[in-house]
Design goal:
- It contains one helix and no strands.
- The chain has one helix spanning 3-58.
- The chain is mainly alpha-helical.
Length: 69
């Protein structure tokens, strides 16, 4: 192999490794972003459900008593 071809192979190998590292980093970044999105949605849903629970707790509770049993 000539010296130029060896350098080209090394450069390609280095560039490919850099590409793969960047792609892996992008996957991780994407997963983190998706998880943040899920957390935000869960927190918003939690606020809505908490408010709904508060309104249900404020309403008078109807008790049914069955004297026949």
């Amino acid at each position: 192999m000539s010296k130029n071809k060896e350098l080209d192979q090394k450069n390609l190998s280095t560039e490919y490794r850099a590409f793969e590292q960047g792609r892996e980093f992008g996957r991780i970044e994407g997963m983190i972003t998706y998880q943040k999105h899920l957390i935000d949605n869960i927190q918003k849903e939690n606020v809505k459900l908490t408010e709904k629970l508060k309104t249900l707790n404020k309403e008078p509770i109807e008790t049914v008593v069955d004297f026949e049993t």
